[in-house]
Design goal:
The protein has 111 residues and is an alpha+beta fold. 25% of the residues lie in helices and 26% in strands.
C-alpha cells in the first residue's frame, strides 16, 4: 500500500469527511467513496492537474507534493484558507460529478 492510500483510509476511520477533485481514473483499489467518507468529482487533466495535494481545514492549509519527493508544508492563516476555499468551490462546481463506485481497480491519489 502506498502512503496516500493509507492516509485516505486513516482519515475515513477517524470519521473525517472529504470532498476531492481529481483527474479521471484515480480511485482507491478496494474501497468505494462511501466507505472513504469522500465525495469525488473529476476535472480533465488538461484543465486541472496539480502536482500537489491541497487540504484545507479550519484556518490551515496543508500542501503535500505528489511527485518523487514527499514534501509537505502547513500554512496557518484565515485569509489564505478562505481564499483557497473559494477557489475550491469554483472548481468543485465546474467538475464532473460521478456516482459512487465500490471496488474500483485503480489507486488512490489526490491532485
Amino acid at each position: 500500500e502506498n502512503f496516500f492510500q493509507k492516509y485516505v483510509e486513516r482519515r475515513a476511520k477517524l470519521g473525517i469527511k472529504s470532498r476531492t477533485i481529481s483527474p479521471p481514473g484515480i480511485r482507491h483499489p478496494s474501497l468505494g467513496e462511501q466507505e472513504l467518507l469522500r465525495e469525488l468529482r473529476f476535472s480533465p487533466r488538461e484543465t486541472f492537474s496539480l502536482p500537489t495535494e491541497i487540504s484545507i481545514y479550519g484556518d490551515k492549509v496543508a500542501l503535500v507534493s505528489l511527485r518523487k519527493d514527499l514534501i509537505a508544508s502547513v500554512i496557518q492563516g484565515k485569509d489564505i484558507a478562505d481564499t483557497l476555499r473559494v477557489l475550491f468551490e469554483i472548481i468543485w462546481h465546474s467538475a464532473q460529478s460521478i456516482p459512487p463506485i465500490t471496488n474500483s481497480p485503480s489507486i488512490e491519489r489526490v491532485s
